[in-house]
Amino acid sequence: MEENKNFEITPDLFERLDDSDKNAEKIAYESKTYFQDAWSRFKQNKLALAGLCFLAIMVVCCIVIPMVSPYSYDAQNMAVASQNPTLAHPMGTDRFGRDILVRVMCGGRISLSVGVIAALIALVVGVIYGGISGYVGGKVDMVMMRIVDCMYSIPDTLYVILIVVVFEPSMFSILLGISISSWMGMSRQVRAQVLTLKEQEFSLAAFVLGASPKRILFKHLIINSMGPIIVQFTMLVPAAIFSEATLGYLGIGLSVPQASWGTLANDAKGLVATRPLECMWPILAICLTMLALNFIGDGLGDALDPKKK
Amino acid sequence: MFKYIVKRVLIGFITLFILATATFFLMKITPGSPFSAEKYKSPEALAAAKAKYNLDKPIMEQYVLYMSDLAHGDLGESMVHQGNTVWYYIKHGFPVTARLGVVAFILSVFGGISLGAAAALSKKKWINNLCMIVATIGVSVPSFLIAMLLIIVFGVELKWLPFVGLTKPANYILPAISLSLYPIAMIARLTRSSLLEVMKQDYIILARSKGTPYKKVVIKHALKNAMLPVITYCGPMFAFLLTGSFVIENAFSIPGIGKTFITCVTDRDYTVIMGVTIFLGIIIITFNLLSDILSAMIDPRIKLK
Protein backbone atom coordinates (compact mmCIF):
# COMPACT_ATOMS: atom_id res chain seq x y z
CA MET A 1 0.00 0.00 0.00
CA GLU A 2 2.88 2.29 0.75
CA GLU A 3 4.31 1.78 -2.72
CA ASN A 4 1.09 2.60 -4.50
CA LYS A 5 1.00 5.95 -2.90
CA ASN A 6 4.31 6.82 -4.47
CA PHE A 7 2.85 6.21 -7.91
CA GLU A 8 -0.03 8.59 -7.56
CA ILE A 9 -0.47 10.38 -10.85
CA THR A 10 -0.58 14.09 -10.48
CA PRO A 11 -0.90 16.66 -13.29
CA ASP A 12 2.46 18.18 -12.47
CA LEU A 13 4.12 14.94 -13.62
CA PHE A 14 3.20 15.95 -17.16
CA GLU A 15 4.97 18.52 -19.14
CA ARG A 16 3.54 20.21 -22.20
CA LEU A 17 5.44 19.35 -25.35
CA ASP A 18 6.98 22.09 -27.31
CA ASP A 19 4.90 22.57 -30.50
CA SER A 20 7.95 22.21 -32.75
CA ASP A 21 8.43 18.58 -31.66
CA LYS A 22 5.04 17.61 -33.00
CA ASN A 23 6.36 17.83 -36.54
CA ALA A 24 9.22 15.41 -36.03
CA GLU A 25 7.43 12.66 -37.92
CA LYS A 26 6.27 14.91 -40.69
CA ILE A 27 7.97 14.57 -44.07
CA ALA A 28 9.69 17.84 -44.72
CA TYR A 29 9.61 17.64 -48.49
CA GLU A 30 6.57 17.27 -50.60
CA SER A 31 6.69 13.77 -51.97
CA LYS A 32 7.65 13.66 -55.61
CA THR A 33 6.13 11.57 -58.36
CA TYR A 34 8.36 9.34 -60.47
CA PHE A 35 8.59 11.90 -63.27
CA GLN A 36 9.25 14.88 -60.97
CA ASP A 37 12.03 12.87 -59.42
CA ALA A 38 13.44 11.99 -62.82
CA TRP A 39 13.21 15.63 -63.93
CA SER A 40 15.20 16.81 -60.92
CA ARG A 41 17.91 14.29 -61.79
CA PHE A 42 17.75 15.22 -65.48
CA LYS A 43 18.22 18.92 -64.65
CA GLN A 44 21.56 18.18 -63.03
CA ASN A 45 22.93 16.81 -66.29
CA LYS A 46 24.16 20.00 -68.01
CA LEU A 47 24.84 18.30 -71.34
CA ALA A 48 21.35 16.83 -71.53
CA LEU A 49 19.80 20.14 -70.55
CA ALA A 50 21.80 21.93 -73.25
CA GLY A 51 20.63 19.31 -75.74
CA LEU A 52 17.02 19.86 -74.71
CA CYS A 53 17.37 23.66 -75.10
CA PHE A 54 19.00 23.26 -78.50
CA LEU A 55 16.31 20.87 -79.67
CA ALA A 56 13.55 23.21 -78.50
CA ILE A 57 15.14 26.14 -80.36
CA MET A 58 15.57 23.97 -83.45
CA VAL A 59 11.93 22.86 -83.42
CA VAL A 60 10.68 26.44 -82.96
CA CYS A 61 12.94 27.67 -85.78
CA CYS A 62 11.77 24.89 -88.10
CA ILE A 63 8.14 25.83 -87.46
CA VAL A 64 8.46 29.63 -87.44
CA ILE A 65 11.19 30.56 -89.94
CA PRO A 66 9.49 29.14 -93.09
CA MET A 67 6.26 30.87 -91.99
CA VAL A 68 7.70 34.34 -91.51
CA SER A 69 10.39 34.28 -94.19
CA PRO A 70 9.58 36.15 -97.44
CA TYR A 71 11.09 33.22 -99.41
CA SER A 72 9.55 29.82 -100.02
CA TYR A 73 11.56 26.63 -100.08
CA ASP A 74 11.12 26.03 -103.81
CA ALA A 75 10.97 29.56 -105.26
CA GLN A 76 13.83 29.96 -107.70
CA ASN A 77 15.43 33.34 -108.31
CA MET A 78 18.36 33.18 -110.71
CA ALA A 79 19.29 36.82 -109.99
CA VAL A 80 20.62 35.84 -106.57
CA ALA A 81 21.93 32.35 -107.39
CA SER A 82 24.93 30.91 -105.45
CA GLN A 83 25.38 33.81 -103.08
CA ASN A 84 27.42 33.70 -99.92
CA PRO A 85 25.61 34.60 -96.68
CA THR A 86 24.17 38.13 -96.77
CA LEU A 87 21.72 40.01 -94.58
CA ALA A 88 18.82 39.06 -96.85
CA HIS A 89 19.90 35.39 -96.98
CA PRO A 90 21.64 34.55 -93.67
CA MET A 91 22.90 31.21 -95.01
CA GLY A 92 23.30 32.30 -98.62
CA THR A 93 21.48 30.90 -101.65
CA ASP A 94 21.88 27.72 -103.71
CA ARG A 95 22.51 27.50 -107.43
CA PHE A 96 18.84 28.17 -108.22
CA GLY A 97 18.75 31.23 -105.95
CA ARG A 98 16.69 29.49 -103.26
CA ASP A 99 17.20 30.70 -99.72
CA ILE A 100 19.23 28.04 -97.89
CA LEU A 101 18.01 29.02 -94.42
CA VAL A 102 14.39 28.37 -95.42
CA ARG A 103 15.36 25.14 -97.19
CA VAL A 104 17.30 23.85 -94.19
CA MET A 105 14.41 24.70 -91.84
CA CYS A 106 11.84 23.05 -94.15
CA GLY A 107 14.18 20.05 -94.33
CA GLY A 108 14.21 20.05 -90.56
CA ARG A 109 10.41 19.89 -90.48
CA ILE A 110 10.51 16.73 -92.61
CA SER A 111 13.50 15.10 -90.92
CA LEU A 112 12.24 15.74 -87.39
CA SER A 113 8.70 14.60 -88.14
CA VAL A 114 9.95 11.46 -89.89
CA GLY A 115 12.07 10.77 -86.81
CA VAL A 116 9.25 11.25 -84.33
CA ILE A 117 6.50 9.49 -86.33
CA ALA A 118 8.66 6.48 -87.23
CA ALA A 119 9.79 6.18 -83.61
CA LEU A 120 6.15 6.38 -82.43
CA ILE A 121 5.07 3.60 -84.80
CA ALA A 122 8.01 1.47 -83.70
CA LEU A 123 7.09 2.24 -80.08
CA VAL A 124 3.49 1.09 -80.44
CA VAL A 125 4.34 -2.06 -82.42
CA GLY A 126 7.29 -2.92 -80.19
CA VAL A 127 5.35 -2.43 -76.94
CA ILE A 128 2.39 -4.54 -78.07
CA TYR A 129 4.57 -7.30 -79.58
CA GLY A 130 7.05 -7.44 -76.72
CA GLY A 131 4.29 -7.14 -74.12
CA ILE A 132 2.32 -10.05 -75.52
CA SER A 133 5.45 -12.16 -76.00
CA GLY A 134 6.62 -11.57 -72.44
CA TYR A 135 3.22 -11.91 -70.79
CA VAL A 136 2.03 -15.05 -72.57
CA GLY A 137 5.44 -16.71 -72.38
CA GLY A 138 6.15 -20.36 -73.23
CA LYS A 139 6.00 -21.53 -76.84
CA VAL A 140 4.40 -18.30 -78.08
CA ASP A 141 7.22 -16.29 -76.56
CA MET A 142 9.83 -18.55 -78.11
CA VAL A 143 8.38 -18.33 -81.62
CA MET A 144 7.82 -14.58 -81.39
CA MET A 145 11.35 -13.96 -80.17
CA ARG A 146 12.88 -16.23 -82.85
CA ILE A 147 11.12 -14.06 -85.46
CA VAL A 148 12.64 -10.97 -83.84
CA ASP A 149 16.07 -12.64 -83.81
CA CYS A 150 15.76 -13.44 -87.52
CA MET A 151 14.74 -9.89 -88.40
CA TYR A 152 17.38 -8.45 -86.11
CA SER A 153 20.24 -10.20 -87.84
CA ILE A 154 19.56 -8.45 -91.14
CA PRO A 155 20.78 -4.84 -91.20
CA ASP A 156 18.24 -1.99 -91.24
CA THR A 157 19.67 -0.36 -94.31
CA LEU A 158 18.76 -3.35 -96.47
CA TYR A 159 15.13 -3.39 -95.30
CA VAL A 160 14.65 0.32 -95.67
CA ILE A 161 16.11 0.40 -99.18
CA LEU A 162 14.04 -2.61 -100.33
CA ILE A 163 10.80 -1.21 -98.94
CA VAL A 164 11.40 2.23 -100.40
CA VAL A 165 12.05 0.57 -103.77
CA VAL A 166 8.82 -1.42 -103.59
CA PHE A 167 6.53 1.43 -102.57
CA GLU A 168 8.27 4.24 -104.51
CA PRO A 169 10.13 6.91 -102.52
CA SER A 170 7.55 8.88 -100.53
CA MET A 171 6.91 9.92 -96.96
CA PHE A 172 4.76 6.79 -96.51
CA SER A 173 7.32 4.27 -97.77
CA ILE A 174 10.14 5.89 -95.82
CA LEU A 175 8.11 5.80 -92.61
CA LEU A 176 7.07 2.21 -93.27
CA GLY A 177 10.63 1.09 -94.00
CA ILE A 178 12.11 2.77 -90.95
CA SER A 179 9.41 1.55 -88.59
CA ILE A 180 9.67 -2.03 -89.86
CA SER A 181 13.40 -2.01 -89.26
CA SER A 182 13.35 -0.43 -85.81
CA TRP A 183 10.63 -2.00 -83.65
CA MET A 184 12.62 -5.11 -82.74
CA GLY A 185 14.87 -3.46 -80.17
CA MET A 186 11.85 -1.95 -78.45
CA SER A 187 10.01 -5.28 -78.33
CA ARG A 188 13.02 -7.01 -76.76
CA GLN A 189 13.26 -4.32 -74.13
CA VAL A 190 9.55 -4.46 -73.28
CA ARG A 191 9.57 -8.26 -73.17
CA ALA A 192 12.46 -8.29 -70.71
CA GLN A 193 10.65 -5.75 -68.49
CA VAL A 194 7.34 -7.63 -68.60
CA LEU A 195 9.07 -10.92 -67.80
CA THR A 196 10.47 -9.56 -64.54
CA LEU A 197 7.44 -7.43 -63.59
CA LYS A 198 4.86 -10.18 -64.06
CA GLU A 199 6.49 -12.22 -61.29
CA GLN A 200 6.05 -9.39 -58.78
CA GLU A 201 3.34 -9.22 -56.12
CA PHE A 202 1.33 -6.34 -57.55
CA SER A 203 0.79 -8.31 -60.71
CA LEU A 204 -0.40 -11.33 -58.70
CA ALA A 205 -2.64 -9.02 -56.65
CA ALA A 206 -4.22 -7.63 -59.81
CA PHE A 207 -4.78 -11.20 -61.04
CA VAL A 208 -6.37 -12.27 -57.75
CA LEU A 209 -8.67 -9.24 -57.86
CA GLY A 210 -9.91 -10.55 -61.20
CA ALA A 211 -8.29 -8.13 -63.62
CA SER A 212 -8.28 -9.35 -67.21
CA PRO A 213 -4.92 -10.24 -68.78
CA LYS A 214 -5.29 -7.24 -71.11
CA ARG A 215 -5.76 -4.93 -68.13
CA ILE A 216 -2.84 -6.43 -66.20
CA LEU A 217 -0.57 -6.15 -69.24
CA PHE A 218 -1.41 -2.61 -70.31
CA LYS A 219 -2.49 -0.95 -67.05
CA HIS A 220 0.08 -2.51 -64.74
CA LEU A 221 3.04 -4.13 -66.45
CA ILE A 222 3.58 -1.70 -69.32
CA ILE A 223 2.90 1.41 -67.24
CA ASN A 224 5.53 0.17 -64.80
CA SER A 225 8.10 -0.29 -67.54
CA MET A 226 7.58 3.25 -68.85
CA GLY A 227 11.12 4.35 -67.88
CA PRO A 228 13.04 1.97 -70.16
CA ILE A 229 10.41 2.44 -72.88
CA ILE A 230 10.91 6.22 -72.89
CA VAL A 231 14.69 5.83 -72.95
CA GLN A 232 14.44 3.42 -75.87
CA PHE A 233 12.11 5.86 -77.63
CA THR A 234 14.55 8.76 -77.33
CA MET A 235 17.17 6.50 -78.94
CA LEU A 236 14.78 5.55 -81.76
CA VAL A 237 14.20 9.16 -82.86
CA PRO A 238 17.82 9.92 -83.80
CA ALA A 239 18.14 6.45 -85.35
CA ALA A 240 15.13 7.17 -87.57
CA ILE A 241 16.48 10.61 -88.55
CA PHE A 242 19.78 8.87 -89.29
CA SER A 243 18.09 6.30 -91.59
CA GLU A 244 16.07 8.94 -93.40
CA ALA A 245 19.14 11.12 -93.92
CA THR A 246 21.09 8.13 -95.24
CA LEU A 247 18.33 7.35 -97.74
CA GLY A 248 18.21 10.97 -98.85
CA TYR A 249 21.97 11.02 -99.18
CA LEU A 250 21.92 7.88 -101.35
CA GLY A 251 19.43 9.59 -103.64
CA ILE A 252 16.50 7.27 -102.88
CA GLY A 253 14.73 9.56 -100.42
CA LEU A 254 12.04 12.15 -101.00
CA SER A 255 11.95 13.62 -104.49
CA VAL A 256 12.55 17.27 -105.44
CA PRO A 257 11.55 19.99 -104.67
CA GLN A 258 10.74 18.58 -101.21
CA ALA A 259 13.85 18.35 -99.13
CA SER A 260 14.89 16.72 -95.91
CA TRP A 261 18.30 17.20 -94.35
CA GLY A 262 19.51 14.04 -96.07
CA THR A 263 18.42 15.17 -99.54
CA LEU A 264 19.93 18.61 -98.91
CA ALA A 265 23.23 16.92 -98.05
CA ASN A 266 22.88 14.89 -101.24
CA ASP A 267 22.22 18.06 -103.29
CA ALA A 268 25.23 19.71 -101.79
CA LYS A 269 27.45 16.66 -102.40
CA GLY A 270 28.50 17.87 -105.85
CA LEU A 271 29.42 21.28 -104.47
CA VAL A 272 31.91 20.01 -101.90
CA ALA A 273 34.86 21.12 -104.03
CA THR A 274 33.49 24.48 -105.17
CA ARG A 275 31.23 25.81 -102.42
CA PRO A 276 32.01 23.96 -99.19
CA LEU A 277 30.15 26.56 -97.13
CA GLU A 278 26.87 25.67 -98.79
CA CYS A 279 27.18 21.99 -97.82
CA MET A 280 28.05 22.91 -94.27
CA TRP A 281 24.55 24.08 -93.30
CA PRO A 282 22.60 20.82 -93.65
CA ILE A 283 25.60 18.91 -92.23
CA LEU A 284 25.71 21.22 -89.24
CA ALA A 285 21.96 20.97 -88.72
CA ILE A 286 21.99 17.14 -88.68
CA CYS A 287 25.16 16.84 -86.58
CA LEU A 288 23.96 19.21 -83.87
CA THR A 289 20.46 17.77 -83.75
CA MET A 290 21.77 14.20 -83.52
CA LEU A 291 24.20 15.18 -80.77
CA ALA A 292 21.42 16.99 -78.88
CA LEU A 293 19.09 13.99 -79.17
CA ASN A 294 21.80 11.60 -78.02
CA PHE A 295 22.64 13.76 -75.02
CA ILE A 296 18.95 13.93 -74.11
CA GLY A 297 18.70 10.16 -74.48
CA ASP A 298 21.72 9.55 -72.24
CA GLY A 299 20.42 12.06 -69.69
CA LEU A 300 16.99 10.48 -69.65
CA GLY A 301 18.53 7.04 -69.31
CA ASP A 302 20.36 8.11 -66.16
CA ALA A 303 17.38 10.10 -64.84
CA LEU A 304 14.73 7.42 -65.31
CA ASP A 305 16.85 4.49 -64.19
CA PRO A 306 18.96 5.67 -61.23
CA LYS A 307 19.96 2.09 -60.40
CA LYS A 308 21.84 1.71 -63.67
CA LYS A 309 24.67 4.02 -62.62
CA MET B 1 28.61 -27.16 -77.67
CA PHE B 2 27.99 -29.22 -80.82
CA LYS B 3 24.24 -29.04 -80.25
CA TYR B 4 24.48 -25.27 -79.83
CA ILE B 5 26.38 -24.86 -83.11
CA VAL B 6 23.93 -27.07 -85.00
CA LYS B 7 21.03 -25.07 -83.62
CA ARG B 8 22.59 -21.75 -84.53
CA VAL B 9 23.42 -22.93 -88.07
CA LEU B 10 19.83 -24.11 -88.46
CA ILE B 11 18.47 -20.74 -87.33
CA GLY B 12 20.88 -19.10 -89.76
CA PHE B 13 19.46 -21.12 -92.63
CA ILE B 14 15.89 -20.31 -91.61
CA THR B 15 16.75 -16.60 -91.47
CA LEU B 16 18.29 -16.83 -94.91
CA PHE B 17 15.23 -18.65 -96.26
CA ILE B 18 12.89 -15.99 -94.85
CA LEU B 19 15.10 -13.23 -96.26
CA ALA B 20 15.13 -14.81 -99.74
CA THR B 21 11.36 -15.39 -99.70
CA ALA B 22 10.57 -11.89 -98.47
CA THR B 23 12.91 -10.31 -101.01
CA PHE B 24 11.41 -12.38 -103.83
CA PHE B 25 7.80 -11.43 -103.09
CA LEU B 26 8.70 -7.79 -102.38
CA MET B 27 10.27 -7.57 -105.81
CA LYS B 28 7.19 -9.19 -107.36
CA ILE B 29 4.76 -6.63 -105.94
CA THR B 30 6.96 -3.74 -106.96
CA PRO B 31 5.29 -1.53 -109.55
CA GLY B 32 7.29 -0.52 -112.62
CA SER B 33 9.48 -2.75 -114.74
CA PRO B 34 13.05 -2.70 -115.98
CA PHE B 35 11.75 -3.56 -119.48
CA SER B 36 10.58 -0.07 -120.35
CA ALA B 37 13.69 0.91 -122.35
CA GLU B 38 13.73 1.65 -126.06
CA LYS B 39 14.64 -1.86 -127.21
CA TYR B 40 11.41 -3.41 -125.95
CA LYS B 41 9.16 -1.46 -128.28
CA SER B 42 7.76 -4.54 -130.02
CA PRO B 43 5.52 -6.88 -128.03
CA GLU B 44 7.48 -9.91 -129.32
CA ALA B 45 10.73 -8.65 -127.86
CA LEU B 46 9.00 -7.92 -124.57
CA ALA B 47 7.44 -11.38 -124.48
CA ALA B 48 10.80 -12.98 -125.27
CA ALA B 49 12.46 -11.03 -122.51
CA LYS B 50 9.73 -11.98 -120.05
CA ALA B 51 10.03 -15.63 -121.03
CA LYS B 52 13.78 -15.48 -120.47
CA TYR B 53 13.25 -14.41 -116.86
CA ASN B 54 10.30 -16.78 -116.29
CA LEU B 55 8.05 -13.75 -115.81
CA ASP B 56 5.32 -15.36 -117.97
CA LYS B 57 4.84 -18.22 -115.52
CA PRO B 58 2.54 -18.15 -112.47
CA ILE B 59 4.11 -16.55 -109.42
CA MET B 60 4.41 -19.70 -107.31
CA GLU B 61 6.23 -21.48 -110.13
CA GLN B 62 8.58 -18.50 -110.45
CA TYR B 63 9.23 -18.74 -106.72
CA VAL B 64 10.01 -22.45 -106.84
CA LEU B 65 12.29 -21.97 -109.86
CA TYR B 66 14.09 -19.07 -108.17
CA MET B 67 14.61 -20.95 -104.93
CA SER B 68 15.93 -24.07 -106.66
CA ASP B 69 18.34 -21.93 -108.72
CA LEU B 70 19.39 -20.26 -105.50
CA ALA B 71 20.07 -23.61 -103.87
CA HIS B 72 22.41 -24.37 -106.77
CA GLY B 73 24.18 -21.05 -106.28
CA ASP B 74 22.67 -19.48 -109.40
CA LEU B 75 21.55 -15.92 -108.73
CA GLY B 76 20.33 -15.21 -112.27
CA GLU B 77 21.17 -12.58 -114.83
CA SER B 78 20.83 -8.81 -114.79
CA MET B 79 17.59 -7.54 -116.30
CA VAL B 80 19.05 -4.23 -117.42
CA HIS B 81 22.47 -5.24 -118.72
CA GLN B 82 21.66 -8.62 -120.22
CA GLY B 83 24.46 -11.12 -120.43
CA ASN B 84 25.91 -9.98 -117.09
CA THR B 85 25.16 -12.48 -114.36
CA VAL B 86 24.58 -11.31 -110.81
CA TRP B 87 27.79 -13.14 -109.86
CA TYR B 88 29.64 -10.89 -112.32
CA TYR B 89 28.55 -7.82 -110.35
CA ILE B 90 29.41 -9.46 -107.04
CA LYS B 91 32.83 -10.56 -108.30
CA HIS B 92 33.63 -7.04 -109.43
CA GLY B 93 32.15 -5.12 -106.53
CA PHE B 94 32.65 -7.27 -103.49
CA PRO B 95 36.48 -7.50 -103.40
CA VAL B 96 36.66 -3.68 -103.41
CA THR B 97 34.15 -3.45 -100.57
CA ALA B 98 35.89 -6.26 -98.72
CA ARG B 99 39.29 -4.55 -98.95
CA LEU B 100 37.88 -1.33 -97.56
CA GLY B 101 35.96 -3.34 -94.96
CA VAL B 102 39.09 -5.16 -93.76
CA VAL B 103 41.02 -1.90 -93.41
CA ALA B 104 38.11 -0.34 -91.54
CA PHE B 105 37.77 -3.49 -89.39
CA ILE B 106 41.42 -3.40 -88.31
CA LEU B 107 41.19 0.34 -87.67
CA SER B 108 38.00 -0.12 -85.61
CA VAL B 109 39.37 -2.93 -83.46
CA PHE B 110 42.73 -1.29 -82.71
CA GLY B 111 41.36 2.23 -82.43
CA GLY B 112 38.39 1.20 -80.33
CA ILE B 113 40.30 -1.02 -77.91
CA SER B 114 43.12 1.47 -77.35
CA LEU B 115 40.68 4.35 -76.90
CA GLY B 116 38.52 2.37 -74.49
CA ALA B 117 41.51 1.06 -72.54
CA ALA B 118 42.99 4.56 -72.29
CA ALA B 119 39.67 5.87 -71.00
CA ALA B 120 39.38 3.10 -68.43
CA LEU B 121 42.97 3.03 -67.15
CA SER B 122 44.26 6.58 -67.44
CA LYS B 123 44.34 8.66 -64.31
CA LYS B 124 44.32 11.86 -66.35
CA LYS B 125 40.91 13.44 -66.64
CA TRP B 126 41.42 14.92 -70.11
CA ILE B 127 42.24 11.54 -71.70
CA ASN B 128 39.00 10.16 -70.32
CA ASN B 129 37.07 13.18 -71.59
CA LEU B 130 38.67 13.01 -75.03
CA CYS B 131 37.74 9.33 -75.38
CA MET B 132 34.17 9.99 -74.34
CA ILE B 133 33.88 12.91 -76.81
CA VAL B 134 35.13 10.72 -79.67
CA ALA B 135 32.75 7.95 -78.59
CA THR B 136 29.78 10.31 -78.48
CA ILE B 137 30.51 11.92 -81.85
CA GLY B 138 31.13 8.52 -83.44
CA VAL B 139 27.79 7.16 -82.28
CA SER B 140 25.69 10.21 -83.00
CA VAL B 141 26.94 11.66 -86.27
CA PRO B 142 26.02 9.78 -89.49
CA SER B 143 29.01 8.44 -91.42
CA PHE B 144 28.23 10.33 -94.60
CA LEU B 145 28.45 13.61 -92.72
CA ILE B 146 31.83 12.61 -91.33
CA ALA B 147 32.85 11.65 -94.86
CA MET B 148 31.74 15.03 -96.22
CA LEU B 149 33.50 16.92 -93.43
CA LEU B 150 36.71 14.94 -94.01
CA ILE B 151 36.49 15.57 -97.76
CA ILE B 152 35.97 19.29 -97.23
CA VAL B 153 38.76 19.67 -94.67
CA PHE B 154 41.49 17.25 -95.80
CA GLY B 155 40.60 16.83 -99.46
CA VAL B 156 39.42 20.21 -100.67
CA GLU B 157 40.79 22.82 -98.28
CA LEU B 158 44.11 21.33 -97.16
CA LYS B 159 44.59 19.08 -100.25
CA TRP B 160 46.45 16.51 -98.11
CA LEU B 161 44.65 13.35 -99.12
CA PRO B 162 42.91 12.03 -102.25
CA PHE B 163 39.17 11.42 -101.96
CA VAL B 164 38.07 9.85 -105.24
CA GLY B 165 38.24 6.11 -105.93
CA LEU B 166 40.32 3.46 -104.20
CA THR B 167 43.44 3.09 -106.34
CA LYS B 168 46.39 4.06 -104.11
CA PRO B 169 46.96 3.12 -100.45
CA ALA B 170 46.52 6.80 -99.51
CA ASN B 171 42.98 6.59 -100.93
CA TYR B 172 41.99 4.21 -98.13
CA ILE B 173 42.63 6.69 -95.33
CA LEU B 174 39.57 8.95 -95.53
CA PRO B 175 36.95 6.28 -96.41
CA ALA B 176 38.29 3.91 -93.75
CA ILE B 177 38.19 6.62 -91.08
CA SER B 178 34.65 7.71 -91.93
CA LEU B 179 33.45 4.10 -92.08
CA SER B 180 35.07 3.04 -88.82
CA LEU B 181 34.25 5.98 -86.57
CA TYR B 182 30.97 4.39 -85.46
CA PRO B 183 32.47 0.94 -84.66
CA ILE B 184 35.44 2.65 -82.96
CA ALA B 185 33.01 4.49 -80.71
CA MET B 186 31.04 1.32 -79.96
CA ILE B 187 34.15 -0.77 -79.23
CA ALA B 188 35.63 2.02 -77.09
CA ARG B 189 32.46 2.11 -74.97
CA LEU B 190 32.34 -1.69 -74.65
CA THR B 191 36.04 -1.96 -73.81
CA ARG B 192 35.90 0.85 -71.27
CA SER B 193 32.95 -0.52 -69.31
CA SER B 194 34.08 -4.14 -69.38
CA LEU B 195 37.69 -3.24 -68.49
CA LEU B 196 36.51 -1.17 -65.52
CA GLU B 197 34.50 -4.20 -64.41
CA VAL B 198 37.41 -6.63 -64.87
CA MET B 199 39.92 -4.42 -63.02
CA LYS B 200 37.83 -4.81 -59.86
CA GLN B 201 38.01 -8.63 -59.96
CA ASP B 202 39.88 -10.65 -57.36
CA TYR B 203 42.28 -12.26 -59.84
CA ILE B 204 43.57 -8.84 -60.89
CA ILE B 205 44.23 -7.91 -57.26
CA LEU B 206 45.91 -11.28 -56.76
CA ALA B 207 48.12 -10.82 -59.82
CA ARG B 208 49.07 -7.35 -58.61
CA SER B 209 49.82 -8.50 -55.07
CA LYS B 210 52.02 -11.28 -56.41
CA GLY B 211 54.15 -8.52 -57.87
CA THR B 212 53.26 -8.87 -61.53
CA PRO B 213 54.14 -5.64 -63.33
CA TYR B 214 51.15 -3.38 -64.03
CA LYS B 215 51.60 -3.53 -67.81
CA LYS B 216 51.62 -7.32 -67.79
CA VAL B 217 48.53 -7.48 -65.61
CA VAL B 218 46.67 -5.16 -67.95
CA ILE B 219 47.65 -6.94 -71.15
CA LYS B 220 47.71 -10.59 -70.00
CA HIS B 221 44.91 -10.64 -67.46
CA ALA B 222 42.62 -7.65 -67.77
CA LEU B 223 42.42 -6.93 -71.50
CA LYS B 224 42.17 -10.61 -72.40
CA ASN B 225 39.17 -11.03 -70.12
CA ALA B 226 37.60 -7.73 -71.13
CA MET B 227 37.52 -8.67 -74.81
CA LEU B 228 34.38 -10.80 -74.69
CA PRO B 229 31.79 -8.09 -75.41
CA VAL B 230 34.04 -6.85 -78.22
CA ILE B 231 34.13 -10.30 -79.83
CA THR B 232 30.36 -10.58 -79.57
CA TYR B 233 30.08 -7.16 -81.19
CA CYS B 234 32.25 -8.21 -84.15
CA GLY B 235 29.31 -9.94 -85.89
CA PRO B 236 27.03 -6.89 -85.93
CA MET B 237 30.09 -4.80 -86.77
CA PHE B 238 30.69 -6.75 -89.98
CA ALA B 239 27.06 -6.14 -90.91
CA PHE B 240 27.51 -2.46 -90.18
CA LEU B 241 30.73 -2.20 -92.21
CA LEU B 242 29.08 -3.90 -95.20
CA THR B 243 25.92 -1.80 -95.27
CA GLY B 244 27.69 1.30 -94.01
CA SER B 245 29.94 1.12 -97.03
CA PHE B 246 26.87 1.77 -99.26
CA VAL B 247 27.09 5.35 -98.11
CA ILE B 248 30.87 5.62 -97.98
CA GLU B 249 31.31 4.16 -101.48
CA ASN B 250 28.80 6.73 -102.68
CA ALA B 251 30.63 9.60 -100.99
CA PHE B 252 34.11 8.62 -102.23
CA SER B 253 33.07 7.24 -105.66
CA ILE B 254 34.37 3.75 -104.85
CA PRO B 255 33.18 1.05 -107.30
CA GLY B 256 32.18 -1.48 -104.62
CA ILE B 257 29.16 -3.72 -104.08
CA GLY B 258 27.27 -0.93 -102.32
CA LYS B 259 27.52 1.41 -105.29
CA THR B 260 26.39 -1.45 -107.56
CA PHE B 261 23.43 -2.08 -105.28
CA ILE B 262 22.31 1.56 -105.24
CA THR B 263 22.70 1.82 -109.03
CA CYS B 264 20.55 -1.29 -109.47
CA VAL B 265 17.95 0.11 -107.07
CA THR B 266 17.61 3.26 -109.16
CA ASP B 267 17.59 1.17 -112.40
CA ARG B 268 15.03 -1.27 -110.90
CA ASP B 269 17.24 -4.20 -111.86
CA TYR B 270 15.33 -6.74 -109.76
CA THR B 271 17.48 -9.83 -110.23
CA VAL B 272 20.61 -7.97 -109.16
CA ILE B 273 18.82 -6.36 -106.17
CA MET B 274 17.61 -9.80 -105.02
CA GLY B 275 20.95 -11.48 -105.67
CA VAL B 276 23.02 -8.86 -103.88
CA THR B 277 20.58 -8.73 -100.93
CA ILE B 278 20.78 -12.49 -100.49
CA PHE B 279 24.57 -12.49 -100.93
CA LEU B 280 25.00 -9.80 -98.28
CA GLY B 281 22.50 -11.66 -96.07
CA ILE B 282 24.59 -14.85 -96.27
CA ILE B 283 27.77 -13.00 -95.34
CA ILE B 284 26.18 -11.12 -92.45
CA ILE B 285 24.46 -14.22 -91.04
CA THR B 286 27.72 -16.17 -91.29
CA PHE B 287 29.68 -13.53 -89.40
CA ASN B 288 26.99 -13.21 -86.72
CA LEU B 289 27.15 -16.98 -86.32
CA LEU B 290 30.94 -17.04 -86.15
CA SER B 291 31.16 -14.28 -83.55
CA ASP B 292 28.48 -15.95 -81.40
CA ILE B 293 30.15 -19.36 -81.57
CA LEU B 294 33.55 -17.81 -80.94
CA SER B 295 32.39 -16.01 -77.83
CA ALA B 296 30.64 -19.15 -76.58
CA MET B 297 33.86 -21.12 -77.08
CA ILE B 298 36.03 -18.54 -75.35
CA ASP B 299 33.80 -17.94 -72.36
CA PRO B 300 32.58 -21.08 -70.60
CA ARG B 301 30.31 -18.91 -68.43
CA ILE B 302 27.97 -18.21 -71.36
CA LYS B 303 25.01 -20.51 -70.96
CA LEU B 304 24.38 -22.44 -74.15
CA LYS B 305 20.66 -22.38 -74.68
From TrEMBL, chain A:
Keywords: Cell membrane, Membrane, Transmembrane, Transmembrane helix, Transport
A cellular component term, taken from the record's GO annotations: plasma membrane
Gene3D superfamilies for this protein: MetI-like
Classification via InterPro entries: BP-dependent_transpt_permease, MetI-like, MetI-like_sf, OppC_N
UniProt record, GO biological process: transmembrane transport
Domain ABC transmembrane type-1: 108-301
PROSITE patterns reported for this sequence: ABC_TM1
Superkingdom field: Bacteria
Subcellular location: Cell membrane
Segments traversing the membrane: 47-68, 110-136, 157-180, 229-252, 280-300
The keyword Glycoprotein appears for this protein: no
Keyword Transmembrane helix: yes
Membrane topology: Multi-pass membrane protein
Predominant location: membrane
Similarity remark: Belongs to the binding-protein-dependent transport system permease family.
Protein known as: ABC transporter permease
UniProtKB/TrEMBL annotation, chain B:
Family matches, as Pfam families: BPD_transp_1, BPD_transp_1_N
Gene Ontology, cellular component aspect: plasma membrane
Family annotation (InterPro entries): BPD_transp_1_N, MetI-like, MetI-like_sf
Originating species: Floccifex porci
Topology in the lipid bilayer: Multi-pass membrane protein
Signal peptide (UniProt feature, chain positions): none
An annotated GO BP: transmembrane transport
Top-level taxonomic group: Bacteria
Keyword vocabulary terms for this entry: Cell membrane, Membrane, Transmembrane, Transmembrane helix, Transport
Regions that span the bilayer: 9-27, 96-118, 130-152, 172-191, 230-252, 272-298
Compartments it resides in: Cell membrane
Listed name of the protein: ABC transporter permease
Organism taxonomic ancestry: Bacteria, Bacillati, Bacillota, Erysipelotrichia, Erysipelotrichales
Domain ABC transmembrane type-1: 94-291
Family under the similarity heading: Belongs to the binding-protein-dependent transport system permease family.
